[in-house]
Amino acid sequence: MSDPKTRRRASRVRSDSFDPESYTIEVVWTTGATVRTFDPWTGEEFDEALSLDDGAVNLDRLNAGAAFIDTHDSSECSRVVGSVVRGSARIEGGKGLCLVQLSRARDVADIVLKIREGVIRNVSVGYWVHRYETVEQDGATPLKIATEWEPLEISAVPVPADAGSQIRSARGRRTGARPRPPETDMERGARAAARILGKPVPKREPSASERALAALRRHPGRAREPDPRRVAEREAADRKAGAKAARRLLWRGHMPGR
Fold first, then answer.
1. How far from the centroid of its chain's Cα atoms is residue 247's Cα?
2. 117, 200, 211, 244: which has the fewest C-beta neighbours closer than 10 Å?
3. Overall pTM surpassing 0.70 (yes/no)
């Protein structure tokens, strides 16, 4: 059974920061976004924001190697998918960031594969709030700002709420071209046969994605930056959908995601 003191925030993620050599991903585990939640003791509903000001977040547990687990299930060690790389957790540019070392164990291989494929796109941070500042909003739902809080663990989860949190893009921390897809058995056989017969070795045909990337490199002006207004509208819609999903979980007797 989960500790009623522990709160959670789920967020949408991307998996293309996966590094196959170090077996790590880079995670944005919070943006501090305001999310509709409730007090598990009193049932009071309120808007909660997580302050990212200097001194507001205690990162000791994350930087000591906190667990990266499956859906906040800390009942068994087999639910551990990885761990936060020691010393990598930080607040930067209004976001909470860290590097996560994924496990190569067989019992979590399916979850790790889904993260690498981008099928699992959400993370959630479990945290304790030690101090709130309450802001009344003219008869509306009160806003509580967590001015002293402590992340405990990070989980892979299905339901997003904080649309800004994500597994970061590889473009954010590595340079260089994306590796080519591996050669297929048919291509490998055709090349071997050509060498045996003394014929010209057929060149490998680029994939559709490789051709598209090549076109963008030839015509960089065609690659448009995303419209900030549309991005903001999409994130607002995601937050609204996440809050609705969290309320459904509450009605079923579950803790809401964050």
1. 22
2. 200
3. no
